[in-house]
Amino acid sequence: xxxxxEEIYQDHxxxxxxxxYHRGHCEQATHSHEGNNPLCGDVISVELRxxxxxxxxxxxxxxxxxxxxxAAASMLMEKVEGKCVEEVKAxxxxxxxxxxxxxxxxxxxxxxxxxxxxxxxxxxxxxxDTEGGSRFGGPNLGEEQ
Amino acid sequence: MQPHSPSLLDxxxxxxxxxILQKVPEGRPRLVFLDSAASSQKPxxxxxxxxxxxxxxxxxxxxxxxxxxEESTERYELARQTIAQFLNTDTESVIFTAGxxxxxxxxxxxxxxxxxxxxxxxxxxxxxxxxxxxPWFQLAQRKEAQVQLVRVTDDGELDWEHWQRCLEQxxxxxxxxxxxxxxxxxxxxxxxxxxxxxxxxxxxxxxxxAAPHQPLDVRAWDADFVVVSGHKMLGPSGIGILCGKxxxxxxxxxxxxxxxxxxKVWETGFSCAEGPAKFEAGTPPIVEAIGxxxxxxxxxxxxxxxxxxxxxxxxxxxxxxxxxxxxxxILGPSLERKAGIVSFTLAGIHSHDxxxxxxxQGIAVRAGHHCTMPLHKRFGIAASTRxxxxxxxxxxxxxxxxxxxVSLQSKFRRKRAQ
Lengths: 145, 418
Fold this sequence. Notes:
The complex is a heterodimer. By secondary structure, chain A is α+β, with helices and mostly antiparallel strands. Chain A has 5 helices and 3 strands; from the N terminus they run αβββαααα. Chain A has helices at about 10-20, 65-80, 85-90, 95-100, 105-120; strands at about 30-35, 40-50, 55-65. In chain A, strands 1-2-3 form a 3-stranded antiparallel β-sheet, covered by helices on one side. The longest helix of chain A has 17 residues, at about 105-120. Chain B is of the alpha/beta class. In chain B, the strands form 4 sheets. A 7-stranded mixed β-sheet of chain B has the order 2-8-7-6-5-3-4, with helices on both faces. A 4-stranded antiparallel β-sheet of chain B has the order 11-12-15-14, covered by helices on one side. The model of chain B is unreliable at about 1-5 (pLDDT under 50). Chain B is globular. In chain B, a hairpin with a 2-residue loop joins strand 9 and strand 10. In chain B, helix 3 (about 65-85) crosses helix 10 (about 285-300) and helix 11 packs parallel to helix 14 (about 395-410). The chains are: A alpha+beta, B alpha/beta. The interface between A and B is medium-sized, with 26 and 25 residues.
């Protein structure tokens, strides 16, 4: 390995990958969004339950993709729960890369930032209260033909 | 080469022809290059031909009266002849484009816009590269036409019953690949062209993965259009080929307008140049065409049959070793109908992680959907890992691939091992 490269499959990354935090469905989601990485086809959807005061009570993700994209999503869900939406909106891409830990090459930064990007969009995608309760996000942009 | 598997190609000598293969990427123990289906490496003879052009006689073509322009023009047109011979077609049917994608778009924009009408059907296949799909979707959008994709079977071959049903609907265009860039499937091109013609359609053949690896006979195929990529056949990037039947090209309107494609321009209009020039608006890829001709000559010298046979040997060995590894699922048909491309998935490990960890071992493989999202969806996967072979690969590269796959399995099996 070159000197400026770091082992990215560190234990805490693999821990999140193999035993993710809140992977699944949020029963009473108020916000949701789905996005993909056109380079590799990775998909992440995020479901949030935000209370009237603007606090993220629950954050869940579902998705398919590489170790980096899935582990990063797990780390992000864990990080944002209990925080205010405004606080998480201010959480920058740089903060996300820092949260992940190991330094990533530009292409793999996209893997790491996928869930962060979807989360930021989710704040602008409130679920309309139709059938009541939860439902899965919008259309998957990557699958439109 | 390898003592246990004699080959018609002297791979050790061939490797010496490729300067980049003498290099080891920074921080890697070696270079095992297995991504030629995405783009091939370049031999010295191609690099030299291009350098020589730029150092010794470069000028714009078809424009100057001075000696450099005359020589550049001559070499550029000689390149067209060389490519025509390489593909076994008429010089007049060879158009240089910016790439294979540009070639397909030219057909869709020129022939397609002129001939396709509302409600018409365009047939393509599920195994097409996006380059041979999206231009047809765009054409269909412009014309309110339909696109139907011939299904692929579980074995990675075209579903011939479905193909038949698609053709019975009298399509205007039938577009398909000669060789799948993911499955490696070798399609029976001549037979398919015949069927398309019987159905009243024109046939467009994507030969991007065929031209670098097997002898091509465009005349025998009898396709209306054949598209080829330059950079996958040892040539430079930025050039592709569009082969069209002269009788069609003559009738087609130009796609891009500009210098070089005109006969006359007056204050209110223009008339077109004849021949390939009509489709070569602007300064063409001069240096690239000269480089591509050098690549074609190099391939011809080694022999496309020998190259194909060599790759088949590597393919057989790759299938043999990889299929013994637990969790490996190889996509594509059985060996006799398969080119030197092995795409696979590995249970529990995403292709991006595979490619990343392989890179650390100096093995370059491709990860992702390889510009074939519908095909991956058909197989119920988002991505796969692809190893593709070329004339500079040998058995040791196949072994390195297999060892790489085995070594990274342990990395993701911590839980299961406990």
